[in-house]
Design brief:
- The protein contains 13 helices and no strands.
- With 309 residues, it is mainly α.
- It has a domain of 192 residues: Ferritin, core subunit, four-helix bundle (Ferritin, Up-down Bundle).
- It is globular.
- The protein starts with a helix and ends with a helix.
- 41% of the residues are buried.
- Bound molecules: 2-acetamido-2-deoxy-beta-D-glucopyranose.
- The site of 2-acetamido-2-deoxy-beta-D-glucopyranose has 7 residues, from helix 7.
């Protein structure tokens, strides 16, 4: 008797627990089915930028902390091989602090993409000084002597960084109109906002130093950015989508100003790039089917792999 009374008394509590449990698991199920409901083309387009997010996560994390995903957030690497040649950069406290924030932002981006699409393991990344040195030599059309070292100091690291988030930014701008689902569009808009912000911070820090000579070379910071942007335009093979920090006024905002702290088209809208254009640039080969540069074995995901077969 006493037992049945106390069981009755527990019934409402039991029902409540059951309800909470069901609500909890149905939320999880509905998140999963949202991801499954993404059209296949959205899944491929949202997975592609993982390549750049992995690259930026490792470059910024190593630059600021001297450690990458394998130490700081191992599950995010998903068993991919460790990057080649990444190291801690010799940075001033303020730049180091900013780069540390970028690193954690990239970790967040990896989590956000992983949450939405199946994703793929970190591809092999070549972040050795010589990858950047080769990129700069190609940009200037001469062998810089000594070879450019991205990890040497603030200016060099910021110039090396100038190479990365902007490419991600143009990718997100190019992807957005192709997405079919609100889930994918919302994610890409959120990623684009922060990538664009990172690019703006890098450009603003460099703009303050635009006329400073990059030592021991005779070229200014602005000249480096012009050359890097020219090279990306050339590799992308899709016209003008990249502009340095100081441009002929015709290329500035409203065709009226040569300071170019942000890049934009004739209406000051961000340029967009296709995955093919991005692969040509980050492979440094000008060919979406010829890996190299930052991705010695090619990028991951269906879109990039389709060119490797
Ligand atoms: C990394 O890049 C440098 C410069 O291009 C190259 O010399 C080196 O062989 C690359 N490493 C791998 C494993 O691809």
């Amino acid at each position: 008797m006493a037992l049945s009374i106390s069981a009755d008394a527990l019934k409402p509590l039991f029902l409540l627990l059951l309800l909470v449990y069901c609500l909890g698991s149905s939320t999880v199920l509905s998140v999963e089915s949202d991801a499954e409901k993404l059209p296949k083309s959205d899944v491929d387009l949202v997975e592609f930028p993982l390549n750049l997010e992995y690259l930026e996560a490792e470059f910024f994390s190593w630059g600021a902390f001297g450690q990458g995903l394998d130490k700081l957030a191992p599950s995010l690497a998903r068993g991919g091989p460790p990057p080649i040649g990444a190291k801690q950069a010799d940075l001033s406290p303020i730049v180091k602090d900013i780069v540390a924030q970028f690193a954690y932002q990239e970790f967040g981006h990896l989590r956000a993409i992983d949450k939405t699409v199946p994703g793929f393991p970190r591809p092999l990344l070549n972040l050795s000084s010589s990858t950047f040195a080769t990129f700069m030599n190609d940009a200037f059309g001469i062998a810089l002597d000594p070879p450019f070292d991205p990890y040497a100091d603030d200016i060099n690291y910021l110039l090396a960084s100038y190479v990365l988030p902007y490419v991600g930014l143009t990718g997100y701008v190019g992807t957005n109109p192709k997405l079919l689902s609100p889930t994918a569009r919302g994610l890409v808009a959120g990623l684009l906002g922060v990538e664009a912000g990172q690019d703006a911070v890098i450009r603003a820090l460099l703009y303050e130093r635009a006329l400073v000579k990059v030592l021991p070379y005779g070229f200014t910071v602005a000249e480096f950015t012009d050359k890097i942007s020219d090279l990306r335009n050339e590799l992308g093979k899709a016209g003008l989508k990249d502009e340095g920090l100081i441009v002929p006024p015709a290329l500035g905002a409203e065709g009226k100003i040569s300071g170019n702290v942000l890049a934009g088209d004739e209406f000051s809208l961000s340029y967009g790039r296709t995955p093919e254009e991005i692969l040509r640039i980050v492979y440094a080969s000008g060919k979406e089917n010829k890996p190299g540069g930052f991705y010695p074995k090619g990028a991951g995901g269906k879109i990039a792999k389709s060119y490797l077969e």
